[in-house]
Amino acid sequence: MFVHVIVASCIVTCVLAGCTPNPCLNGGTCVDVPSSEDVRCICAPGWDGPVCSTHFRYLGCYMNQMQRVLPVRYPDSTSNSPLECASRCRSYRFAGVENSNECFCGNVQPVVSKPESECNAVCPGESTKKCGGVWRVSVYSNRAPMYRGCYVDTIPRVLPTQKTPNSPTNTPLECASRCIGFAFSGVEASGECFCGTVLPTVLKPDSECNYACPGNSALKCGGWLRISVYSN
Questions:
Q1: Which of 52, 126, 165, 179 has the smallest number of Cβ neighbours within 10 A?
Q2: How far is CA 173 from CA 112, 193, 221, in A?
Q3: φ/ψ bin of 131: left (φ > 0), alpha (ψ from -120 to 50), beta (otherwise)
Q4: Beta strands 226-231 and 146-152, pairing class
Q5: Bridge partner residues of 196 (DSSP)
């Protein structure tokens, strides 16, 4: 039996033995392909690849300049896409696609963001995606958020910006994607997601962050007034 995963508009295929056990990692959903014996992985937000094992987060549209904001440039590609560029940039923290066929890499996130409408060039290898624009680079993170520990939360909140009060798909990675632009993200009481710029100070044992994440029950999403904190 084969498993397919949709990577944007293309389908990647590999040999697997069906949906039992689930071959899709990190909260991915395995589904049967109609009228065939094949199955397909639908990846959770922030994951990509044939079995959802590749960290991949869109960070936004940024201004580029002559001294490139992501300084490493790969040769232009007629099959350029966010995932292809991220694969080429696998040794770097960030990947960026620009002007349709350009791919850049770097370890420092650009700072001057622009409206999404200015990243309007179609990707030649993935026509449903945008690959930057003229001096505009669509930037992606090649890294998962880094776990910093289980902390005491308070009122007012130690991470003051709340993004979701009760998300049915909450995970650390989903929350980190909601907290783009913040230094830290935190998940709490299963479904809650908070963002902030200052790391909390009162550290607790990981055993006190014991609530399962609704988007991936294998992961923990804080507890009662306990917040699992990640660096973005």
A1: 165
A2: 23, 10, 11
A3: beta
A4: antiparallel
A5: 184
Percent of the chain with pLDDT over 70: 91
Distance CA 36, CA 1 (A): 9
Q: How far is CA 204 from CA 25, 99, 200, 222, in A?
A: 28, 47, 11, 11
Phi, psi for 115 (deg, rounded to 5): -60, 145
For 52-61, what is each residue's pLDDT tens digit? 777 778 889 9
Residue type, position 142, single letter:
N
Which residues are CB-neighbours of 66 under 8 A, at least 6 positions away?
none
Strand, coil or helix: what is 117?
helix
Q: Are the C-beta atoms of 127 and 8 separated by less than 8 Å? A: no
